[in-house]
Specification:
The structure is a single chain. The chain is mostly helical. It folds into two domains: 108 residues, no CATH class; 151 residues, no CATH class. Helix content is 64%, strand content 0%. The protein is built from eleven helices and no strands. Helix 1 packs parallel to helix 9, helix 4 crosses helix 8 and helix 7 runs antiparallel to helix 9. The chain is globular, with a radius of gyration of 25 Å.
Length: 295
């Protein structure tokens, strides 16, 4: 019961901490405005990096926004990590393998829960029971095998690259090594626990035990679940929580080009930001007081 209960707590903390990070980012003062073009929401102009400010007397005309272009650009980044592909192709393979694998494993987890609910309803998840149970059976196998394979491979090669690439090594912090090692340990213990049964019937049984707070512990299962729970709690406030910040990075920094006109909401934001007092001091040596001129 304790082990199943701890999984519930970890999942609740994951979503709770993620929500807290969203609120924290949303309450931050106005960023240093970049207005980097192209802005995909610029209807009819995003293809060449244009702006609605090209129009004569643009301030008196409605600002036409294309949500379809914005969504398309977002999906390219979310589903394919396009900017990394364009700028660091050799690094993209490992990173995309890892991120795509995470998406697939999320799907695998959802399918496990669907399988458990199907069995709770009285239908056994198997090849021959019905079309539905056969579909859940095959999709669970496919997503589980593919997800664990490409996520583990991607994590391993990301770690190896940071260890041996002379450029990345200079910029890799101990926390980033810890992040990758934690992920790799969680994945490897998952393979040890679930690997002997590639139909994932065992995984479905354990999922049912977690949902009903009746987990039957084994050493390998306990280690895997503890690592998984630590990861759930650790990810939102860590650097790996960038899935939270991406919305604000794009919509509130890179793409925000709302004009600062008199009486506008943006003017109020700018004034509020200007009234913000610095909470840190600049420590660079070249920012010290000027030296006395030589006689």
């Amino acid at each position: 019961m304790i082990l199943g209960f701890s999984v519930y707590i970890a999942v609740i903390l994951f979503f709770g901490l993620s929500a807290y990070q969203v609120i924290k980012y949303a309450r931050m003062p106005l960023h240093g405005r970049m207005e980097l073009y192209p802005v995909p929401q610029e209807k009819g102009r995003h293809t060449y990096g244009g702006s609605y400010m090209e129009e004569p007397e643009w301030w008196s005309k409605p600002h036409q926004v294309s949500k379809i272009s914005e969504l398309a650009d977002m999906l390219k980044e979310m589903l394919f990590i396009k900017k990394l592909f364009d700028n660091q192709r050799s690094f993209w393979w490992s990173s995309y393998s890892f991120h795509l694998g995470i998406y697939v494993l999320i799907g695998w987890t959802v399918l496990l829960v669907i399988g458990v609910l199907t069995e709770f309803a009285g239908a056994s998840v198997s090849l021959h029971a019905s079309l539905w149970t056969g579909l859940v059976y095959y999709l669970t196998i496919m997503t589980g095998v593919v997800g664990f394979t490409i996520t583990t491979a991607g994590t391993f090669f990301l770690l190896v690259r940071r260890i041996f690439n002379p450029v990345l090594k200079k910029y890799t912090t101990p926390q980033e090594y810890f992040n990758l090692i934690l992920l790799l340990a969680t994945l490897v213990t998952g393979i040890i626990v679930w690997g002997p049964d590639l139909t994932f019937n065992t995984a479905r049984q354990v999922t049912a035990q977690v949902l009903t707070l009746s987990v039957v512990p084994s050493t390998s299962l306990v280690i895997h679940l503890i690592l998984l729970e630590v990861m759930f709690v650790y990810i939102p406030p860590s650097k790996m929580g960038h899935y939270i910040g991406k919305y604000f990075t794009y919509h509130k920094i890179l793409w925000e080009n709302e004009p600062n006109t008199a009486g506008s909401p943006m003017e109020s934001k700018v004034k509020a930001a200007l009234n913000q007092k610095a909470t840190t001091s600049w420590a660079a040596s070249h920012m010290g007081p000027p030296s006395a001129p030589e006689a």
